[in-house]
Amino acid sequence: MVFADLLFLYFFLPVCLICYFITRNANIRNIVLIVFSMIFYAWGEPVWVSILAVSALVDYCNGRVIEKHPEGWQAKLALAWSLIFNLGLLFGFKYTGFFVENLNNAAGLNIPVPHIKLPIGISFYTFQTISYTIDCYWGKVKPQKSFLKFLMYVSLFPQLVAGPIVRYSVIAEEIEDRKTTINDISEGFSRIILGLGKKVLIANSLSTVVTSLFGNADNKYSAIDSLSVLGTWYGAILVGLWYYFDFSGYSDIAIGLGRIFGFHFDENFKYPFICKTISEFWQRWHISLSSFFRDYVLYIPIFGKRRKYGGLFLVWFLTGLWHGASWNFVFWGLYYGLFIMMEMMIGKKKMKKMPVPAAHIYTKTIIFLGFGIFYFESLPKLCKFFKGLIGLNGNSFCDSYTANIFMGNIFLFIAAIFFAMPVIPKIREKAFRKPGSAYIFQSAGVICNALILIASSLLLLNNTNNPFLYFRF
C-alpha cells in the first residue's frame, strides 16, 4: 500500500484513526498501530511480514542481552549478531544477484544469477534496528522491555517502507507516553496534504517530462542518443527536482502521520537546493540516512586506526551502494565523497568566502550532474549522458524538441523551482509577526490545503500506481 492512493487516504487512514482514537488506553492504541502497520505492509507482499517480525524479534532479544550483561562478552556477541543478521539479510535480498553477476564477469564464471525480489522497506527497517542495538550497546538508550512496543517502533507504518530512518532515541519517550493535541492533528494533516501535493501534483508531472527526455527508468527506451546539449542539462535539472519532490513528499506525509499519532519524527529534508556547499547539501538532503552513516560508520577504525579520508570514502561508498545494487549508485556515492573531501581540504572558512553566485553555480552544477549519475543505471547510457552534456554525441546545442518540451512545461518548471525554495515559510514567518496577519495566513492555508487535496484526489482517480521512488531502495 502507498500513501498516494485513494484507498489509503479515504479508507485505510480514516478507519485506522477511528480505531486509534476511540480508546485512551495506551496499550490498545499500540496494538492498533501494530495491526494496521502489518496490514499496510502486507497489502502487496504478505509473505515478507514474517521477515519484518523476525528482524524485530532478533534485535529485541539483542537489546535485552545487552541490558543484562552491559560489560560482558554477551553484549559484544549480541551486537555482532545484530550486525551479521541485519546486514546479512540486506545483502542476501538486495545484493546477491549483483555480487554473482560481477563475480561471473570478473572470473569468467557462469554461475546462475538469482533474481530475488526485494522486500519493501528492508533497507530502512534493518538500519533502524541496527541503530537501536548499537545505541543500546553504547548506553545511549535503555533497551525496550516490551516486545510489542519494540515491534510497534519497527513496524510503524508512517515510516516503515521508505523512511525516514527513525532512531529509537528520537521517539523512545513517546513510545511509552504520548499525547495528541488539536495542534498536532492540524499540523499533521497540513503536512500530509503538503506531501501529497508534492508527490501527485509536482513529482508525478516532472517524471513524465523526464521520461520524454531521458526515457524510462529501466532504460528500455531512451532519447538520450538524440537529445541536444540544452535538453540534456534540462533533463538533469528536472531529475533533481523530481527526486526532491518525490522523496521529500513521502517524508512530509510520514512526519505528518507520525504527528497525528503523537510521534515527532526528525526532519528529513530542509530545502537542500539553497545550499552553498556540497557538505551543506547533505546536511539538508535525506538527513536521516546521511546522519546514520556519519554516526555509525565514519569513525570506524580502518586497519586499526581512525582514518579521516578513508572513513569518508567508506561512508560514501556505502551510501551509494545502499541506494541500489548497481555500479552507477556506487559511482554516485564516491562522486559526492570526492567533492566533500575537496571541501574539507579547502576548509570551511575559505568555502564561506566564495561569492554567493559562484557558490550556487558550483553546487547546483555538481548536484544536478549527480542526479544524472543516479538516474542512469545503464553504464552505456550514463556515458552518453555525460557526452550529451558537452555535445560529444554529435547533437545540436538546442533543437525544437527541447524547446517544445520546455515551453510546454514552463509553468511546472517555475512552480517546482519556487516550491523547492523556502519562500512560503519566510512569508509565513513574517505574517505571524504582524497582528491580524496570522489569521489571514491561516485561513489562506486552509483553503490551499483543501484545493491541494481536491486536485490530488482528482488526479489519483486516473492513476492507480503511485509508488514513491525510495520503494526501489
From TrEMBL:
GO terms for cellular component: plasma membrane. Pfam families: MBOAT. One of its GO terms (molecular function) is acyltransferase activity. The chain crosses the membrane at residues 6-23, 30-58, 78-100, 150-172, 192-215, 227-245, 313-338, 359-376, 405-424, 436-461. The keyword Acyltransferase applies. Keywords: Acyltransferase, Cell membrane, Membrane, Transferase, Transmembrane, Transmembrane helix. Its main location: membrane. It is a multi-pass membrane protein. It comes from the Bacteria. InterPro entries: Ac/AlaTfrase_AlgI/DltB (IPR024194), AlgI (IPR028362), MB_O-acyltransferase (IPR051085), MBOAT_fam (IPR004299). PANTHER family: ACYLTRANSFERASE, PROTEIN-CYSTEINE N-PALMITOYLTRANSFERASE RASP. Belongs to the membrane-bound acyltransferase family. This is Alginate O-acetyltransferase. It comes from Ruminococcus albus SY3.
